[in-house]
Amino acid sequence: MRPVHPLLRHALSGLAGNVVLLAGLSFLVFVGVDLLPGDPITSRLGPTATPERIAAVRAELGLDQPVLTRYGDWLAGIVHGDLGRSAAGQPVTELLSGRVGNSILLACLATACLIPLSFGFGLAAARRRGRPADRAISTGSLLLLSVPEFVVAGFLVLILAIGLRLLPAVSLVPAGSSPVRHSEVLVLPVLSLLLVGLAYATRVIRAAAAGTLRAPYVEFLRLSGQSERTILRTAVVPAVLPVAVQIWLLTGVSMIGGAVLVEKVFGYPGIGELLVTSVQTGDLAVVQALVLVLGGATLAVLLIADLAMVLLTPRLRTGGGAE
Amino acid sequence: MSRLGKAGWALFFLLLLVILIGPAIAPNTATHPVGPPYAPPSGRALLGTDHLGRDMLSRLLLGGRPLLLTSLAAAAAGTLAGSLTGLVAALSRRRLGAWLMRPLDAITAVPPILLLLLCLTALPNRTGLVIAVAITSAPLSARVARSAAAQVAGRAHVENAIARGENWSWLLGREILPLVAGPLLADFGIRFVAAVYLVAAAGFLGLGASDTDWGRLIVEALPGAALQPVALLAPVIGVAFLAVAANLASDRAAQNSRGLLA
Amino acid sequence: MTALLEVQNLRLTAAGRAIVDGVSFQVEPGESVAITGPSGAGKTTLALTVLGHLRDGVTHDGGQVLVDGRPTLPQPPPELRGGLVGYVGQDPGNSLNPYARVATTLLRVTARSVPRPQRSALVSELLARVGLPTELAQRYPHQLSGGQQQRVVIAAALARNPRLLVLDEPTTALDLVAKAEVVAELRRVSDAGISLLWVTHDLASVETVVDRVVTIGEPTTASYSHAPVATAAREVVLTATGVTAGYGHTSVLRAVDLELRSGELLAVLGASGVGKSTLARVLTGLHRPASGTLAHRGERLPWDVRRRSRAERAAIQLVGQNPAEALHPRQTVRTALTRPLVRLRNLPTAEHDGEIKLLLDAVQLPIEVADRLPGELSGGMRQRVALARALAARPEVIVCDEITSALDSSTQSAILRMLDELRAELGLAVVLITHDADVAASVSDRLLVLASGRVARTGATADLLPPGESPEERVRHLLIDHTDL
Amino acid sequence: MTLSRRVLLRSAGLGAAAVALPSACGAAASGQTPVQATASATPKPGGTLRAVFTGGGATESLDPYVGGAPVDLVRHEVMYDALFRFRGNEVEAALALAAKPVAGQGAFDLELRPDVVWHDGTAFTARDVLASFAYMSSPERAYPSELSAYFDFAKATVTGPLTLRIPTRQPIGEPALLLASYPAKIVKPGKSIGTGPYQVDAFAAGREARLKKFDRYWEKTAVSDELVLSSLTDPQAKVNAVLSGQSDFSTDIPFTIAKTGTSNAELEIRTAGPLGRVGFGFVLNATKAPFKDPRARKAVRLGIDRQALVDSVLLGFGAPGNDLFGAGSKHFDSREPLARDVDQARTLLKDAGAAGATVVFRTAEYEIGYNASTQLVAEQLRELGLMVKIDQVGVPEFFDVKALGQTDGIVFSIGALPLPVTYSRLAAYPTLGLPDAELKTALGAALAATDEPARAKAWATAQQIMTDRGNTVVWGQADTLSIARKSVAGVETRAGQEKYPYLGRAGLA
């Protein structure tokens, strides 16, 4: 009956949907940023520029065209792999290339640490529901959730970098090198991102695990004389995993765009600074590229999260089965 | 847990009261200097002074309300818009429901900070802030509302109401809403906490609207943390307190609703 | 020789209320005992204490449970669970770990390490014991039918050769065919010398298996049956022809024809998943079929209830399966009964109170019930309120979808009796959808048997299920005959 | 006249988009460390000097006419030479030896330094200078050089291997001053090749530049072998970099840091000295009521409490201002600041018909203290009966022309730039300049004067006019603070460039 594997078909249709969504999103942002008060030309030429000069630069950059035409041109450029030029005249691809990678690196590292920690803490708390260990973990994560991330980052700098001098306070990465080769500068930014993400992920995983521990099939396993360890391994972990994977992926991808504040505190060479300045100066090409990159990454991750959910849940993976 | 929940509510309401009447009981104005900058706590200024020598306690009392009201307004607007979309999507035919939800997915794809920047650049005031926070939270609320309502929409009494020809307002307001109010309130708590952070983050990025709200106080106190730690700790504790209380209240709302549908 | 199981004056409380209050009984080795009693009598709680398990909130408040002479409370002996005593729960769909294949589940409960090469042989053997083929070993629980699931649960319970099997309503969640499979299986287990402790509210189906019945709480009453009425002369109120319906690409009903005359009770009988509920929803306009027509007194009716006129909506009413979901938990009975008066009958407010009293009278509920919330009512009372709500519309047809399956047998017969009376008094036509052949045989005038979404048999109940024969056996034959076709 | 907003900002010490904001937690608490003037110890040759400055993110560039962030300017200073430069507040010869106006011709002759070598080893000639002029004033460039407003580079001619003749657009008495005042670096167009003491080794925009000593530098070769310039945008992060030992030097740090001091014995906090101060104040809109009336402007000057502002906003690191910008530059009129006189201010306001009026002051946190000073001034002016409504906006919108025209005052600061630069920048904005014929004449005379006494007289007149009826309110002169390892020596601050010092002679002692 089905020529294509259902999972593949799901992935393909999701991908197609995402492309449409991204196109819609980019259009909205294009028109939106166009309407913003910041005008790249006046901010570039200054207020004393003559009207003729402004008109000339506008024409040069194609800004005299209707917004739809410009959007069309921009789209055509995308198809050819050209993200356009910033208001200052630099190619956007050049502006973004290293920075996007650095931001992704930060998010990946934080997520890599997040996975085992949140899983461990979440399960530990759920198993000891209501007992001191659970209280400690739950309260700790609640408190961490309640402090803005830049405050967390600030405290970390104060204690670990300036007080104890264990780690560099700012992420200075030598020219011609990458943060990977200077792993010490990554520690504090990763830690700041991790702490905030960890609190949330732990809470969600704890809730999912606690729910599963109350499920009838766990009771049945207990009544069949299975040990708690076995129950945890065979019934609870597989049930929590689909939820956990979703949380990890979503937290991870939100860290790429969400690291702006943390990047600012540490002077980390990511996309944070670019994000802030390009929006404020109405640098359309850069904003668009960032929306495309961040939006695309988020949608892709949402899709992967969906697929992971299906793959990790036998009922979804194998289709309906005998009913 | 229930005792903890009660404590959460009590805490929440106490804080709410202090915050709401704060401007009335503040001993000084927010702008008038009462002493040297970064003065430690003293009889004249119980929490010391800030970077301009203004009374920290008064600024704290004056700043709670704008933060609370902005965050509340933003969370309420976001939860309302999101919930409504989610509820309608859950009650509609599948295709229409999906069509309603897709644009919201697109919003989820934009990082909240970027949305915040876009909105605040367009409207650099409190309204812009509320709109930005509402837009970022609406899609998540819609998801929560949709999945909560989907569990309820197939119940016999809802179908019965549809079958006897009840209109949308009855269906949503009387049949569905009372049953999903718990999850929605819980979600509202989470949105509220998120709103508090975004408002604070806006201040951190220099985009804040009021000059006394707590997010702004934190940002202003950060450089002088070593000189006057109280000026930093007081608003940080205030924000954390609000967030913890809201989280506890939200947990409680979620628990209450679980019992209802058992 | 000591008793295998001995319960001595056991007292269990929850939230300060005694749920099991001084129960004592014994089970000898090889003996099978049924525990019965009305719902809420603490049957399940009692059964779980045999395995030394107390659910959250339940406390042990006196007495003892001894298995093979050793107490199971507060902590069961190490080899008790799964070893000495096996357990089979109520809902096989929820008992099996949804993340493990059948083979994995079975191997794990054997609690000994089996060398890899011998594993598949062991699994096959365990499956063969409950009459299941080896192919099922690699399936996940959701890929099995209900009967198969429950037999896997039994296989798991038997894996370590227990001496006692605790069964908590092992057949209630199953359809006719699956129920027969499981009962037969348990009979074999019992014959093999393993003791059964069988908790059930449906004594009829376990009679052939158990040696003895222990009743806790109040005893249940006998069932109800009515005298069929001649209906040929009455006019046709509802005609459905060629109804084909489904969800997505799978069709559930195929070319179903149905005719209903006023005052008649038509039973629609079929195994679970056969499309009975879909039929109910199609008739009441809640599910749009792919094709087919519906006529009310010769007038064509739109399928979608939202497109029907007020009179058309009022004419056909549905009473659903689950009393817990039938009523809005936050609305009083009065609100539930007032809404149809307002929406469907446009009754002036002044007349509401009187009408509500009449409706509650009709379903034999006191007027005080009007101001209660559903949470304060029992399942039976809620189902009566649901029925009253349907009557409030002054319908010509009531479609009852398994309205009694969630109720214990005494409540069940009371509801059926009431339905019968209402029918006689008001000339209501009723479509009674059920999987219970006994219920169908006892109350219906005509019968429509569904199998695989098609009408397998239809005709007068008296012809299809002649008195004197077990209706369940007859129905199974009807269904199997059809499947053979 | 093409003056860009960015240049205006540069004078305020900030790059185009650099957002100065307070940030993460401060230094470890300790006793107060006295703030010291720039150390004059001699650095030892060799080694690496690491310094961190406010960066411009991805917009940083090696092209001296593209990047505008402080880190860009510091880097450009050591990689490229100008024709003339400041030492203290006096002009001295660099790549050019002299610029002499040609009487009656509306032009001047430029005489270049011989034996100068480019980083690529080629010899420096008059053609290179012509190419640089063409490059910096090219209309295609985003910010064509402001010098084009005074000089007609298109008509410049090479008159010898090391001489050029450049026509002027208005009488210019001292071309060297203008050539030193505006950024006019000599560069091989399109390449990052200059003649300065350092040449580029590695560069990553927004992160770091590694510069190595150029051994054939025409002047004394640099002290340190290597210069590592890092970019950070957050003021606190810059300080943290030095505090945690990742860098040796950073400047333009928050006042709070100086107030806190540092517990680290190896570090010290320095000021750029009295010549390296930044004037903080407001510019009143003299084109509309109430500040169209000089009495209302005077009332504001009398109504503010300068010392309170210096104590609160600058935490005492500075001195009260006398309402004139350009303190520390040549010809600056350093008269005593006005004392606060609320009564007189009230009377003046009443006379101007502005008692109880509501005015709008525009502010954005362009520099630390902008918003705070606006708030304090608003409080102080309230006592006179002048209601100040604060229009606080985001940094990128601050200089929106239309909005500027509608406000009554904007917060403003400017360093110790030469007076021609200061006054031409103020005049560039219709709402910042003072519409006054006498002032215009005086400024023209100051530019055209060829002899020193005439220049001094013209500037004195101009500043007298500004004192009498000007629209600038300069309440304070803020110290520029830096944090450095004690061994850092030889850092030179040039007039108006307190936030991007010259590191060509700097090193570790």
UniProtKB/TrEMBL annotation, chain A:
Main localization (coarse): membrane
Subcellular location: Cell membrane
Keyword list, A-Z: Cell membrane, Membrane, Transmembrane, Transmembrane helix, Transport
Record-linked SUPFAM superfamilies: MetI-like
GO CC annotation, single: plasma membrane
Transmembrane parts of this sequence: 12-33, 104-126, 142-166, 186-209, 285-312
Membrane topology category: Multi-pass membrane protein
GO BP terms, alphabetized: transmembrane transport
Record carries keyword Membrane: yes
InterPro entries: BPD_transp_1_N, MetI-like, MetI-like_sf
Pfam family for this entry, one: BPD_transp_1
Domain ABC transmembrane type-1 positions: 100-305
Similarity-based family: Belongs to the binding-protein-dependent transport system permease family.
Name the record gives this protein: Peptide/nickel transport system permease protein
Native species: Kribbella sandramycini
UniProtKB/TrEMBL annotation, chain B:
Record-linked Gene3D superfamilies: MetI-like
GO-annotated cellular components: plasma membrane
Subcellular location, record wording: Cell membrane
Keyword entries, A-Z: Cell membrane, Membrane, Transmembrane, Transmembrane helix, Transport
InterPro entries on file: BP-dependent_transpt_permease, MetI-like, MetI-like_sf
Residue intervals of the ABC transmembrane type-1 domain: 68-245
Membrane topology classification: Multi-pass membrane protein
Residue stretches spanning the membrane: 67-91, 188-210, 230-249
Family membership noted in the UniProt record: Belongs to the binding-protein-dependent transport system permease family.
Name of the protein: ABC-type dipeptide/oligopeptide/nickel transport system permease subunit
Source organism phylogeny: Bacteria, Bacillati, Actinomycetota, Actinomycetes, Propionibacteriales
UniProtKB/TrEMBL annotation, chain C:
Keyword Zinc-finger: no
CDD domains linked: ABC_NikE_OppD_transporters (cd03257)
GO BP annotation list: transmembrane transport
Keyword Nucleotide-binding: yes
Domain ABC transporter: 5-243, 238-477
Keywords: ATP-binding, Nucleotide-binding, Transport
Coiled coil spans: none
GO molecular function: ATP binding; ATP hydrolysis activity
InterPro entries associated with the record: AAA+_ATPase, ABC_transp_ATP-bind, ABC_transporter-like_ATP-bd, ABC_transporter-like_CS, P-loop_NTPase
Family: Belongs to the ABC transporter superfamily.
Protein name: ABC transporter ATP-binding protein
Organismal lineage: Bacteria, Bacillati, Actinomycetota, Actinomycetes, Propionibacteriales
Automatic annotation (TrEMBL), chain D:
One Gene Ontology biological process: peptide transport
Keyword line: Signal
Domain of life, per lineage: Bacteria
GO cellular component, as recorded: ATP-binding cassette (ABC) transporter complex; periplasmic space
Record-annotated Solute-binding protein family domain positions: 91-396
Pfam family, one: SBP_bac_5
Signal peptide from the UniProt entry: 1-27
Matching InterPro entries: Peptide/Ni-bd, SBP_5, SBP_5_dom, TAT_signal
Regions annotated as coiled coil: none
A molecular function GO annotation: peptide transmembrane transporter activity
Protein's UniProt name: ABC transporter substrate-binding protein
Species for this entry: Kribbella sandramycini
